[in-house]
Amino acid sequence: DWAMDNFACKLYQDAQAVIYPCLGYAAPPPDVAAAAGAARESMKEFTDFFLREKFVGGGRLSIADYRIAPFLFCYAHPLLLERGKFECSDRLKQYVADFVEACPSSGLLSSADGGSL
Question: Residue 92, class by beta-carbon neighbours within 10 Å (0-12 exposed, 13-18 middle, 19+ buried)?
């Protein structure tokens, strides 16, 4: 619950500022680099605290993983670096790879030539 609350209250605002503009859902913020920096800091705090193990709840997927994984998958998308100046940490990349491997339905995240995002 705490991980989902953290996402809803903090990380989602970063997603709106960084992910949405890169994928064409919103206008970019006035300072793209500052938005990316804030998102990187928030994501570092999140991964340092909630992703000390393979997934949020430990070694197995939890409801929190299903809630946050689509957004973390987006943060790992190449457009986030190209357009949003957001560089994905190695820990975040590993989490996304682990999630994709553990969740059979994660293929939805990369279907339709990326149009599913």
Answer: buried
CA-nearest of 39, 34, 31, 37 to 14 is 39
pLDDT tens-digit profile, the chain (117 residues): 789 999 999 899 999 999 999 988 999 999 999 999 999 999 999 999 999 999 998 999 999 999 999 999 999 988 888 888 999 999 999 999 999 999 988 877 776 665 555
Whole-angstrom distance, CA of residue 44 vs CA of residue 26: 24
pTM: 0.87
Exposed e or buried b per residue across 52-65, where buried means at least 16 C-beta atoms within 10 angstroms of its C-beta: eebbbeeeebeebb
Report helix, strand or coil for 55.
strand
Measured at the CA of 78, the angle between CA 76 and CA 83, to 5 degrees, comes to 110
